[in-house]
Amino acid sequence: MNTYVNKKTFLVFIYRHRWKPNIFSLFNNIFSNFFPIFIIKIPIIGKFPKKIICHVTSNMAATATSNATFRLGNPLSSSSSSSVYSSNKLPVNFRKFALQTSPVKSFSVSCTLTRKPVPAAPVSMDSDPNGWRRPDSFGRFGKFGGKYVPETLMSALSELDAAFHSLSKDEKFQEELAGILEDYVGRESPLYFAERLSEHYKRPNGEGPDIYLKREDLNHTGSHKINNAVAQALLAKRLGKKRIIAETGAGQHGVATATVCARFGLQCIIYMGAQDMERQPLNVFRIRLLGAEVRAVHSGTATLKDATSEAIRDLVTNLETTHYILGSVAGPHPYPMMVRDFHAVIGKETRKQALEKWGGKPDVLVACVGGGSNAMGLFHEFVNDKDVRLIGVEAAGFGLDSGKHAATLTKGEVGVLHGAMSYLLQDEDGQIIEPHSISAGLDYPGVGPEHSFLKDVGRAEYHSVTDEEALEAFKKLSRLEGIFPALETSHALAYLEKLCPTLPNGTKVVVNCSGRGDKDVETVIKHLRV
Fold first, then answer.
1. Are 34 and 82 contained in the same domain?
2. pLDDT tens for residues 426-435?
3. Sheet strand arrangement including 243-248
4. Residue 255 belongs to what domain range?
5. Which residues are catalytic?
6. pLDDT tens profile 516-530
7. Who has the most CB within 10 Å: 58, 228, 243, 292?
8. Do 266 and 157 share a structural domain?
9. Which residues are registered as beta bridge partners of 70?
10. What DSSP string runs through 393-417?
Protein backbone atom coordinates (compact mmCIF):
# COMPACT_ATOMS: atom_id res chain seq x y z
CA MET A 1 0.00 0.00 0.00
CA ASN A 2 1.42 3.38 -0.93
CA THR A 3 -1.48 5.44 0.38
CA TYR A 4 -1.30 7.65 3.44
CA VAL A 5 -3.55 6.62 6.27
CA ASN A 6 -4.28 7.99 9.70
CA LYS A 7 -5.12 4.94 11.79
CA LYS A 8 -3.58 3.93 15.08
CA THR A 9 -4.62 0.28 14.70
CA PHE A 10 -2.74 -1.92 12.26
CA LEU A 11 -2.23 -5.60 11.56
CA VAL A 12 1.06 -7.43 11.48
CA PHE A 13 0.80 -10.69 9.53
CA ILE A 14 3.75 -13.02 10.18
CA TYR A 15 4.02 -16.09 7.99
CA ARG A 16 6.43 -18.93 7.29
CA HIS A 17 8.35 -19.32 4.02
CA ARG A 18 6.29 -22.25 2.81
CA TRP A 19 3.18 -20.11 2.42
CA LYS A 20 2.41 -19.21 -1.15
CA PRO A 21 2.30 -15.53 -2.16
CA ASN A 22 -1.30 -15.73 -3.34
CA ILE A 23 -2.38 -16.60 0.24
CA PHE A 24 -1.13 -13.41 1.86
CA SER A 25 -2.03 -11.35 -1.22
CA LEU A 26 -5.61 -12.48 -0.74
CA PHE A 27 -5.32 -11.67 2.96
CA ASN A 28 -4.09 -8.16 2.10
CA ASN A 29 -6.87 -7.56 -0.43
CA ILE A 30 -9.53 -8.50 2.09
CA PHE A 31 -8.31 -6.52 5.09
CA SER A 32 -6.36 -3.57 3.67
CA ASN A 33 -9.48 -1.44 3.38
CA PHE A 34 -9.93 -1.72 7.14
CA PHE A 35 -6.40 -1.91 8.60
CA PRO A 36 -2.89 -1.03 7.46
CA ILE A 37 -1.00 -4.31 7.17
CA PHE A 38 2.64 -5.32 7.60
CA ILE A 39 3.66 -8.71 6.26
CA ILE A 40 6.80 -10.23 7.77
CA LYS A 41 8.46 -13.42 6.58
CA ILE A 42 10.20 -15.78 9.02
CA PRO A 43 11.91 -19.16 8.53
CA ILE A 44 9.96 -22.41 8.71
CA ILE A 45 11.81 -23.42 11.86
CA GLY A 46 11.83 -21.22 14.95
CA LYS A 47 9.25 -19.40 17.00
CA PHE A 48 7.05 -16.50 16.03
CA PRO A 49 8.51 -13.22 17.34
CA LYS A 50 6.89 -11.45 20.26
CA LYS A 51 8.18 -8.07 19.14
CA ILE A 52 9.20 -6.28 15.97
CA ILE A 53 11.94 -3.76 15.28
CA CYS A 54 10.48 -0.72 13.56
CA HIS A 55 12.70 1.52 11.44
CA VAL A 56 11.14 4.94 11.97
CA THR A 57 11.61 7.88 9.62
CA SER A 58 10.15 11.33 10.02
CA ASN A 59 8.61 13.68 7.49
CA MET A 60 9.87 16.57 9.60
CA ALA A 61 13.50 16.38 8.51
CA ALA A 62 15.35 14.62 5.74
CA THR A 63 17.83 13.12 8.16
CA ALA A 64 15.39 11.96 10.81
CA THR A 65 15.55 8.21 11.34
CA SER A 66 15.63 5.98 14.36
CA ASN A 67 15.17 2.37 15.42
CA ALA A 68 12.67 1.27 18.02
CA THR A 69 11.44 -2.07 19.30
CA PHE A 70 7.73 -2.59 19.92
CA ARG A 71 6.03 -5.53 21.60
CA LEU A 72 3.23 -6.99 19.53
CA GLY A 73 1.05 -8.21 22.39
CA ASN A 74 -1.30 -11.17 22.02
CA PRO A 75 -2.11 -12.27 18.46
CA LEU A 76 -5.62 -11.87 17.09
CA SER A 77 -5.21 -15.35 15.66
CA SER A 78 -2.44 -17.89 15.57
CA SER A 79 -1.60 -21.23 14.02
CA SER A 80 1.48 -23.31 13.35
CA SER A 81 2.01 -21.41 10.13
CA SER A 82 1.00 -17.83 10.84
CA SER A 83 0.10 -15.23 13.42
CA VAL A 84 -1.83 -11.99 13.08
CA TYR A 85 -1.20 -9.14 15.54
CA SER A 86 -2.99 -5.87 16.15
CA SER A 87 -1.80 -2.97 18.30
CA ASN A 88 -3.11 0.48 19.06
CA LYS A 89 -0.86 1.34 22.01
CA LEU A 90 2.47 1.91 20.33
CA PRO A 91 4.59 4.96 21.28
CA VAL A 92 4.32 6.47 17.78
CA ASN A 93 1.57 7.35 15.35
CA PHE A 94 1.87 5.55 12.02
CA ARG A 95 1.14 7.52 8.92
CA LYS A 96 2.70 5.85 5.90
CA PHE A 97 2.61 2.10 5.32
CA ALA A 98 4.22 -0.16 2.76
CA LEU A 99 4.09 -3.92 2.18
CA GLN A 100 7.46 -5.39 2.98
CA THR A 101 9.12 -8.70 3.59
CA SER A 102 12.09 -8.36 5.88
CA PRO A 103 15.27 -10.37 6.45
CA VAL A 104 14.87 -13.43 8.63
CA LYS A 105 16.73 -12.06 11.65
CA SER A 106 15.50 -8.48 11.85
CA PHE A 107 11.71 -8.72 11.60
CA SER A 108 11.79 -5.07 10.57
CA VAL A 109 9.11 -2.92 9.05
CA SER A 110 9.18 0.65 7.80
CA CYS A 111 6.93 3.45 8.91
CA THR A 112 6.79 7.22 9.14
CA LEU A 113 6.48 9.20 12.34
CA THR A 114 3.87 11.95 12.27
CA ARG A 115 4.48 15.48 13.52
CA LYS A 116 2.49 14.86 16.69
CA PRO A 117 3.66 11.66 18.40
CA VAL A 118 1.68 10.06 21.16
CA PRO A 119 2.63 12.08 24.26
CA ALA A 120 4.79 10.38 26.84
CA ALA A 121 3.54 9.96 30.38
CA PRO A 122 4.14 13.14 32.38
CA VAL A 123 7.23 13.19 34.53
CA SER A 124 7.51 15.17 37.73
CA MET A 125 10.31 15.54 40.26
CA ASP A 126 8.06 14.27 43.04
CA SER A 127 6.99 11.09 41.24
CA ASP A 128 10.42 10.40 39.75
CA PRO A 129 13.20 11.44 42.16
CA ASN A 130 15.84 10.18 39.74
CA GLY A 131 14.11 11.71 36.72
CA TRP A 132 16.70 14.44 36.38
CA ARG A 133 19.49 11.96 35.76
CA ARG A 134 18.84 12.28 32.07
CA PRO A 135 19.01 11.14 29.35
CA ASP A 136 17.83 7.55 29.53
CA SER A 137 19.56 4.68 27.75
CA PHE A 138 17.86 5.67 24.48
CA GLY A 139 19.18 9.21 24.67
CA ARG A 140 15.80 10.68 25.56
CA PHE A 141 14.77 13.39 28.00
CA GLY A 142 11.19 12.29 28.52
CA LYS A 143 9.83 12.22 24.97
CA PHE A 144 12.52 14.59 23.68
CA GLY A 145 15.96 13.85 22.23
CA GLY A 146 16.82 10.53 20.62
CA LYS A 147 18.83 9.73 17.50
CA TYR A 148 16.88 10.56 14.33
CA VAL A 149 19.77 10.18 11.92
CA PRO A 150 20.71 8.18 8.83
CA GLU A 151 21.81 4.60 9.43
CA THR A 152 25.31 5.59 8.29
CA LEU A 153 25.67 7.75 11.42
CA MET A 154 24.32 5.30 13.98
CA SER A 155 27.56 3.37 14.52
CA ALA A 156 29.62 6.58 14.73
CA LEU A 157 27.28 8.02 17.36
CA SER A 158 27.38 4.77 19.32
CA GLU A 159 31.19 4.84 19.20
CA LEU A 160 31.16 8.44 20.42
CA ASP A 161 28.76 7.59 23.24
CA ALA A 162 30.94 4.69 24.39
CA ALA A 163 34.10 6.82 24.22
CA PHE A 164 32.48 9.61 26.21
CA HIS A 165 31.37 7.29 29.00
CA SER A 166 34.74 5.58 29.06
CA LEU A 167 36.69 8.84 29.25
CA SER A 168 34.41 10.27 31.91
CA LYS A 169 35.90 7.59 34.20
CA ASP A 170 39.44 7.89 32.84
CA GLU A 171 41.53 9.69 35.49
CA LYS A 172 44.32 10.55 33.06
CA PHE A 173 41.89 12.14 30.59
CA GLN A 174 40.13 14.08 33.35
CA GLU A 175 43.42 15.36 34.77
CA GLU A 176 44.56 16.50 31.32
CA LEU A 177 41.24 18.25 30.70
CA ALA A 178 41.27 19.95 34.11
CA GLY A 179 44.83 21.17 33.54
CA ILE A 180 43.97 22.68 30.15
CA LEU A 181 40.84 24.34 31.52
CA GLU A 182 42.89 25.92 34.30
CA ASP A 183 46.08 26.88 32.48
CA TYR A 184 44.84 27.50 28.93
CA VAL A 185 41.19 28.52 29.27
CA GLY A 186 41.69 30.40 32.53
CA ARG A 187 39.13 28.67 34.75
CA GLU A 188 37.61 29.15 37.18
CA SER A 189 35.73 32.18 35.89
CA PRO A 190 34.79 34.80 38.51
CA LEU A 191 31.37 35.14 40.12
CA TYR A 192 31.26 38.93 40.09
CA PHE A 193 28.94 41.04 42.25
CA ALA A 194 27.47 43.69 39.92
CA GLU A 195 27.09 46.35 42.58
CA ARG A 196 25.97 49.26 40.43
CA LEU A 197 23.60 47.08 38.40
CA SER A 198 22.10 45.84 41.66
CA GLU A 199 21.70 49.43 42.85
CA HIS A 200 19.97 50.31 39.60
CA TYR A 201 17.26 47.74 40.31
CA LYS A 202 16.69 48.78 43.93
CA ARG A 203 13.18 49.93 44.69
CA PRO A 204 12.51 53.39 46.22
CA ASN A 205 12.67 51.85 49.70
CA GLY A 206 16.20 50.63 48.98
CA GLU A 207 15.26 46.98 48.71
CA GLY A 208 15.99 44.69 45.80
CA PRO A 209 17.97 41.66 44.62
CA ASP A 210 21.74 41.20 44.62
CA ILE A 211 22.88 40.50 41.06
CA TYR A 212 25.97 38.45 40.28
CA LEU A 213 27.52 37.74 36.89
CA LYS A 214 29.18 34.43 36.10
CA ARG A 215 31.99 35.81 33.95
CA GLU A 216 32.31 33.29 31.13
CA ASP A 217 33.21 36.25 28.93
CA LEU A 218 36.64 36.24 30.59
CA ASN A 219 37.51 32.77 29.32
CA HIS A 220 40.12 32.42 26.60
CA THR A 221 38.39 33.24 23.25
CA GLY A 222 35.74 35.30 25.06
CA SER A 223 32.85 32.94 25.79
CA HIS A 224 31.72 29.69 27.40
CA LYS A 225 32.15 27.85 24.10
CA ILE A 226 35.79 26.97 24.82
CA ASN A 227 34.78 24.56 27.63
CA ASN A 228 33.13 22.14 25.26
CA ALA A 229 35.55 22.71 22.38
CA VAL A 230 38.61 21.77 24.47
CA ALA A 231 36.97 18.64 25.86
CA GLN A 232 35.70 17.41 22.49
CA ALA A 233 39.05 18.07 20.84
CA LEU A 234 40.74 15.87 23.47
CA LEU A 235 38.06 13.23 22.90
CA ALA A 236 38.62 13.38 19.13
CA LYS A 237 42.35 12.80 19.64
CA ARG A 238 41.58 9.70 21.72
CA LEU A 239 39.36 8.46 18.87
CA GLY A 240 42.17 9.03 16.37
CA LYS A 241 40.26 11.70 14.42
CA LYS A 242 42.51 14.39 12.93
CA ARG A 243 39.94 16.38 10.98
CA ILE A 244 37.53 18.58 12.96
CA ILE A 245 34.36 20.24 11.68
CA ALA A 246 31.99 22.59 13.49
CA GLU A 247 29.08 24.93 12.88
CA THR A 248 28.90 28.47 14.19
CA GLY A 249 26.37 31.28 14.35
CA ALA A 250 27.79 34.24 16.23
CA GLY A 251 31.27 32.91 15.52
CA GLN A 252 32.21 32.23 19.14
CA HIS A 253 32.02 28.45 18.78
CA GLY A 254 33.92 28.71 15.52
CA VAL A 255 36.67 30.73 17.21
CA ALA A 256 36.80 28.31 20.15
CA THR A 257 37.01 25.27 17.86
CA ALA A 258 39.65 26.85 15.63
CA THR A 259 41.60 27.78 18.75
CA VAL A 260 41.73 24.26 20.19
CA CYS A 261 42.55 22.82 16.76
CA ALA A 262 45.53 25.18 16.56
CA ARG A 263 46.50 24.10 20.09
CA PHE A 264 46.36 20.37 19.24
CA GLY A 265 47.47 20.50 15.60
CA LEU A 266 44.18 19.35 14.07
CA GLN A 267 42.71 20.23 10.68
CA CYS A 268 39.69 22.51 11.18
CA ILE A 269 36.73 23.40 8.95
CA ILE A 270 34.03 25.77 10.18
CA TYR A 271 30.61 26.03 8.54
CA MET A 272 28.99 29.43 8.89
CA GLY A 273 25.88 30.94 7.33
CA ALA A 274 26.63 33.65 4.77
CA GLN A 275 24.32 36.06 6.59
CA ASP A 276 26.10 35.41 9.89
CA MET A 277 29.46 35.98 8.22
CA GLU A 278 28.27 39.47 7.25
CA ARG A 279 27.12 40.12 10.83
CA GLN A 280 30.31 38.79 12.43
CA PRO A 281 33.28 39.77 10.21
CA LEU A 282 35.67 40.05 13.17
CA ASN A 283 35.11 36.43 14.22
CA VAL A 284 35.43 35.23 10.63
CA PHE A 285 38.84 36.91 10.48
CA ARG A 286 39.85 35.42 13.84
CA ILE A 287 38.90 31.90 12.70
CA ARG A 288 40.95 32.24 9.53
CA LEU A 289 43.86 33.77 11.43
CA LEU A 290 43.88 30.67 13.64
CA GLY A 291 44.44 28.53 10.53
CA ALA A 292 40.95 27.16 10.05
CA GLU A 293 38.93 27.14 6.85
CA VAL A 294 35.58 28.96 6.91
CA ARG A 295 32.98 27.56 4.50
CA ALA A 296 30.11 29.93 3.77
CA VAL A 297 26.65 28.35 3.67
CA HIS A 298 24.27 30.05 1.24
CA SER A 299 21.40 27.56 1.34
CA GLY A 300 18.14 28.14 3.22
CA THR A 301 18.27 31.17 5.47
CA ALA A 302 22.09 31.18 5.45
CA THR A 303 22.20 31.16 9.25
CA LEU A 304 22.99 28.72 12.07
CA LYS A 305 20.39 26.09 11.12
CA ASP A 306 21.84 25.77 7.63
CA ALA A 307 25.43 25.75 8.88
CA THR A 308 24.51 22.84 11.17
CA SER A 309 22.88 20.96 8.30
CA GLU A 310 25.99 21.36 6.15
CA ALA A 311 28.25 20.17 8.98
CA ILE A 312 26.11 17.03 9.39
CA ARG A 313 26.33 16.35 5.63
CA ASP A 314 30.11 16.65 5.84
CA LEU A 315 30.24 14.23 8.76
CA VAL A 316 28.15 11.61 6.93
CA THR A 317 30.65 11.52 4.07
CA ASN A 318 33.85 11.64 6.18
CA LEU A 319 33.12 9.44 9.18
CA GLU A 320 36.47 7.65 9.25
CA THR A 321 38.62 10.76 9.64
CA THR A 322 36.29 13.44 11.02
CA HIS A 323 34.89 14.43 14.39
CA TYR A 324 32.05 16.96 14.57
CA ILE A 325 32.38 19.33 17.53
CA LEU A 326 28.74 20.32 17.81
CA GLY A 327 28.50 23.59 19.70
CA SER A 328 25.23 23.31 21.57
CA VAL A 329 23.11 20.89 23.58
CA ALA A 330 21.16 20.06 20.42
CA GLY A 331 21.55 17.31 17.83
CA PRO A 332 21.34 13.53 18.21
CA HIS A 333 22.38 11.62 21.31
CA PRO A 334 25.01 11.71 22.80
CA TYR A 335 25.64 15.38 21.88
CA PRO A 336 23.02 17.03 24.18
CA MET A 337 24.31 15.02 27.14
CA MET A 338 27.97 15.37 26.24
CA VAL A 339 27.96 19.12 25.58
CA ARG A 340 25.93 19.70 28.76
CA ASP A 341 28.40 17.73 30.86
CA PHE A 342 31.40 19.53 29.38
CA HIS A 343 29.76 22.87 30.26
CA ALA A 344 28.55 21.71 33.70
CA VAL A 345 31.74 23.20 35.13
CA ILE A 346 29.92 26.57 35.00
CA GLY A 347 27.27 25.47 37.49
CA LYS A 348 29.70 23.54 39.68
CA GLU A 349 31.90 26.61 40.07
CA THR A 350 28.85 28.78 40.74
CA ARG A 351 27.74 26.54 43.61
CA LYS A 352 31.22 26.60 45.15
CA GLN A 353 31.65 30.36 44.71
CA ALA A 354 28.18 31.15 46.09
CA LEU A 355 28.97 29.15 49.21
CA GLU A 356 32.21 31.10 49.62
CA LYS A 357 30.63 34.52 49.00
CA TRP A 358 27.39 34.36 50.96
CA GLY A 359 27.28 30.88 52.47
CA GLY A 360 24.40 29.53 50.43
CA LYS A 361 23.00 28.79 46.99
CA PRO A 362 21.75 31.21 44.34
CA ASP A 363 18.03 31.85 44.50
CA VAL A 364 17.60 32.53 40.78
CA LEU A 365 19.68 31.55 37.75
CA VAL A 366 19.20 33.43 34.47
CA ALA A 367 20.72 32.58 31.09
CA CYS A 368 19.98 33.21 27.44
CA VAL A 369 18.74 30.28 25.35
CA GLY A 370 19.34 29.68 21.65
CA GLY A 371 20.39 26.06 21.36
CA GLY A 372 20.89 26.30 25.11
CA SER A 373 24.45 25.23 25.98
CA ASN A 374 25.38 28.07 28.33
CA ALA A 375 22.04 27.77 30.13
CA MET A 376 22.35 24.00 30.61
CA GLY A 377 25.93 24.46 31.79
CA LEU A 378 24.64 26.74 34.54
CA PHE A 379 21.35 24.93 35.27
CA HIS A 380 22.52 21.32 35.40
CA GLU A 381 24.20 21.53 38.78
CA PHE A 382 21.03 22.97 40.35
CA VAL A 383 18.26 20.99 38.65
CA ASN A 384 17.74 18.88 41.78
CA ASP A 385 17.56 21.98 44.00
CA LYS A 386 13.84 22.75 43.96
CA ASP A 387 14.34 26.09 45.70
CA VAL A 388 16.54 27.45 42.89
CA ARG A 389 14.59 29.07 40.04
CA LEU A 390 15.89 28.32 36.55
CA ILE A 391 15.04 31.02 33.98
CA GLY A 392 15.91 30.80 30.29
CA VAL A 393 15.52 33.85 28.06
CA GLU A 394 14.86 33.51 24.35
CA ALA A 395 15.00 36.03 21.51
CA ALA A 396 11.63 37.66 20.78
CA GLY A 397 13.14 39.56 17.83
CA PHE A 398 10.64 42.14 16.58
CA GLY A 399 7.99 40.72 18.94
CA LEU A 400 6.29 37.38 19.48
CA ASP A 401 3.33 38.36 17.32
CA SER A 402 5.48 39.64 14.48
CA GLY A 403 6.52 36.22 13.23
CA LYS A 404 10.10 37.50 13.30
CA HIS A 405 11.58 35.93 16.42
CA ALA A 406 13.54 32.90 17.68
CA ALA A 407 11.39 32.07 20.73
CA THR A 408 11.25 28.33 20.16
CA LEU A 409 10.14 27.26 23.63
CA THR A 410 7.61 30.08 23.88
CA LYS A 411 5.97 29.72 20.47
CA GLY A 412 7.23 26.45 18.99
CA GLU A 413 5.73 22.99 18.49
CA VAL A 414 7.26 19.54 18.94
CA GLY A 415 9.13 18.17 15.94
CA VAL A 416 12.45 16.73 14.79
CA LEU A 417 15.42 18.76 13.61
CA HIS A 418 19.11 17.90 13.31
CA GLY A 419 18.64 14.44 14.75
CA ALA A 420 16.60 15.14 17.88
CA MET A 421 13.00 15.67 18.91
CA SER A 422 12.42 19.03 20.55
CA TYR A 423 10.41 22.21 20.24
CA LEU A 424 10.79 23.86 16.83
CA LEU A 425 9.57 26.88 14.94
CA GLN A 426 7.57 25.22 12.18
CA ASP A 427 4.47 25.77 10.08
CA GLU A 428 1.41 23.52 9.78
CA ASP A 429 3.19 21.34 7.22
CA GLY A 430 6.21 20.80 9.45
CA GLN A 431 8.45 23.13 7.45
CA ILE A 432 10.95 25.14 9.48
CA ILE A 433 10.06 28.81 9.90
CA GLU A 434 12.92 31.26 9.44
CA PRO A 435 13.88 32.64 12.87
CA HIS A 436 15.04 36.17 13.57
CA SER A 437 17.21 37.71 16.24
CA ILE A 438 19.64 40.60 16.29
CA SER A 439 21.92 38.07 17.98
CA ALA A 440 23.41 35.57 15.55
CA GLY A 441 23.94 33.07 18.37
CA LEU A 442 20.23 32.93 19.23
CA ASP A 443 19.02 32.89 15.62
CA TYR A 444 18.10 29.18 15.63
CA PRO A 445 14.65 27.56 15.05
CA GLY A 446 15.22 24.70 17.51
CA VAL A 447 16.43 24.18 21.06
CA GLY A 448 18.22 21.49 23.04
CA PRO A 449 15.91 18.59 23.98
CA GLU A 450 16.68 18.85 27.69
CA HIS A 451 15.34 22.40 27.72
CA SER A 452 12.14 21.12 26.12
CA PHE A 453 11.92 18.48 28.85
CA LEU A 454 12.54 20.98 31.66
CA LYS A 455 9.86 23.25 30.22
CA ASP A 456 7.24 20.51 29.94
CA VAL A 457 7.75 19.21 33.48
CA GLY A 458 7.78 22.74 34.88
CA ARG A 459 11.29 22.65 36.33
CA ALA A 460 12.51 25.62 34.32
CA GLU A 461 10.68 28.68 33.03
CA TYR A 462 11.30 30.36 29.72
CA HIS A 463 10.64 33.96 28.72
CA SER A 464 11.66 36.20 25.84
CA VAL A 465 12.88 39.74 25.18
CA THR A 466 12.98 41.77 21.98
CA ASP A 467 15.93 43.05 19.97
CA GLU A 468 15.31 46.55 21.31
CA GLU A 469 15.28 45.37 24.93
CA ALA A 470 18.52 43.43 24.40
CA LEU A 471 20.24 46.50 22.92
CA GLU A 472 19.22 48.61 25.91
CA ALA A 473 20.61 45.95 28.25
CA PHE A 474 23.88 45.97 26.27
CA LYS A 475 24.20 49.72 26.82
CA LYS A 476 23.13 49.51 30.47
CA LEU A 477 25.75 46.96 31.54
CA SER A 478 28.42 48.84 29.57
CA ARG A 479 27.69 52.07 31.43
CA LEU A 480 26.98 50.68 34.88
CA GLU A 481 29.68 48.01 35.13
CA GLY A 482 32.14 48.73 32.32
CA ILE A 483 31.43 45.33 30.75
CA PHE A 484 30.46 44.81 27.09
CA PRO A 485 28.18 41.75 27.11
CA ALA A 486 27.55 39.68 23.99
CA LEU A 487 24.17 40.36 22.40
CA GLU A 488 23.23 36.82 23.41
CA THR A 489 23.99 37.59 27.06
CA SER A 490 22.17 40.92 26.69
CA HIS A 491 18.90 39.01 26.32
CA ALA A 492 19.37 37.45 29.75
CA LEU A 493 20.31 40.83 31.22
CA ALA A 494 17.28 42.49 29.62
CA TYR A 495 14.90 40.15 31.43
CA LEU A 496 16.09 41.64 34.75
CA GLU A 497 13.83 44.62 33.98
CA LYS A 498 10.78 42.38 34.42
CA LEU A 499 12.24 40.01 37.00
CA CYS A 500 13.81 42.29 39.62
CA PRO A 501 10.66 44.18 40.69
CA THR A 502 9.09 40.83 41.64
CA LEU A 503 11.94 39.58 43.85
CA PRO A 504 12.22 39.93 47.65
CA ASN A 505 15.02 41.99 49.15
CA GLY A 506 18.41 40.28 49.14
CA THR A 507 17.49 37.62 46.55
CA LYS A 508 20.68 36.24 45.07
CA VAL A 509 20.44 36.32 41.26
CA VAL A 510 23.17 34.84 39.05
CA VAL A 511 23.18 35.81 35.38
CA ASN A 512 25.44 33.80 33.09
CA CYS A 513 27.55 36.32 31.20
CA SER A 514 28.12 33.80 28.42
CA GLY A 515 30.28 35.96 26.16
CA ARG A 516 31.82 39.36 25.59
CA GLY A 517 30.40 41.91 23.19
CA ASP A 518 33.44 43.00 21.20
CA LYS A 519 32.18 40.89 18.30
CA ASP A 520 28.83 42.76 18.31
CA VAL A 521 30.06 46.35 18.31
CA GLU A 522 29.48 46.82 14.56
CA THR A 523 25.91 45.53 14.90
CA VAL A 524 25.26 47.74 17.93
CA ILE A 525 26.60 50.81 16.09
CA LYS A 526 23.87 50.37 13.47
CA HIS A 527 21.05 50.27 16.02
CA LEU A 528 22.06 52.29 19.08
CA ARG A 529 22.55 55.99 19.55
CA VAL A 530 25.31 56.61 22.07
1. yes
2. 998 889 999 9
3. 293-297, 267-273, 243-248, 322-324
4. 149-178+223-333
5. 225, 247, 514
6. 999 999 999 999 877
7. 228
8. yes
9. 52
10. EEEEET-TTTT--B-HHHH-EEEEE
